[in-house]
Design a protein that fits this description.
- The complex is a heterodimer of chains A (111) and B (120).
- By secondary structure, chain A is an all-beta fold.
- Helix content of chain A is 0%, strand content 44%.
- With 120 residues, chain B is an all-beta fold.
- Classes of the chains: A mainly beta (111), B mainly beta (120).
- Chains A and B meet through strand 3, strand 7 and strand 8 of A and strand 5 and strand 10 of B.
């Protein structure tokens, strides 16, 4: 079980908005460490999607947004498209474990 | 453009060793921290190890501490992962990734991965 908890799956119809949560604790997200999000399309390497809680690298559509509050973070995807179907992972750092952590991943299905 | 190309994966028996390499190009390799991240078949991402830009500090996940060694040769623009005493649970695709910005910055570029299978 991951220290950063994500829902195993979420789904939405094209055009809809979905959110993926990433729940941590006072030694990681709650301690102020940044949360980053990655998208992994089937059969490919992960790709950085959101960094520093709410920043998009160049080339990432503004349909993707991130937020953080307390011990949790969220990734929101609006205007869902078929090509958004992928696995999504949050990542942060834990000061108690002195480890870089990934969430367990969330599989997004576009209906 | 930034490129990271892993190599060295393969099938190895439990208890044996393997060394992975990650050839970097398209950026000043000596200026960036680097990580290894693995993904077991059908599973999520697991951080393995990290090394600072100058190689002076190294960090490991508990699951590999004492068995794996991360290193780099900045003159060859290459990152390494020496894996000893391999176990079945080390079977995974191993990715190298670059740290963008500060030490705990995001992994902004990833290689395509190399598959390591530990099996008798």
């Amino acid at each position: 079980q991951s220290v950063l908890t994500q829902p195993p799956s979420v789904s939405g119809a094209p055009g809809q908005r979905v959110t993926i949560s990433c729940t941590g604790s006072s030694s990681n997200i709650g301690a102020g460490y940044d949360v980053h999000w990655y998208q992994q399309l089937p059969g490919t390497a992960p790709k950085l999607l959101i960094y520093g809680n709410n920043n998009r690298p160049s080339g990432v559509p503004d349909r993707f947004s991130g937020s953080k509050s307390g011990t949790s973070a969220s990734l929101a995807i609006s205007g869902l498209q078929a090509e958004d179907e992928a696995d999504y992972y949050c990542q942060s750092y834990d000061s108690s474990l002195s480890d870089i952590l990934f969430g367990g991943g969330t599989k997004l299905t576009v209906l | 453009q930034v490129q990271l190309v892993e190599s060295g994966g393969g099938v190895v028996q439990p208890g044996r060793s393997l060394r992975l390499s990650c050839a970097a190009s398209g950026f000043t390799f000596s200026g960036y921290g680097m990580h290894w991240v693995r993904q077991a078949p059908g599973k999520g991402l697991e951080w393995v190890a990290a090394i600072r830009y100058d190689g002076n500090n190294k960090y490991y996940a508990d699951s590999v501490k004492g068995r794996f060694t991360i290193s780099r040769d900045n003159s060859k623009n290459t990152l390494y992962l020496q894996m000893n005493s391999l176990r079945a649970e080390d079977t995974a695709v191993y990715y190298c990734a670059r740290v963008g910005g500060a030490n705990l910055g995001p992994l902004d570029y990833w290689g395509q991965g190399t598959l390591v299978t530990v099996s008798s």
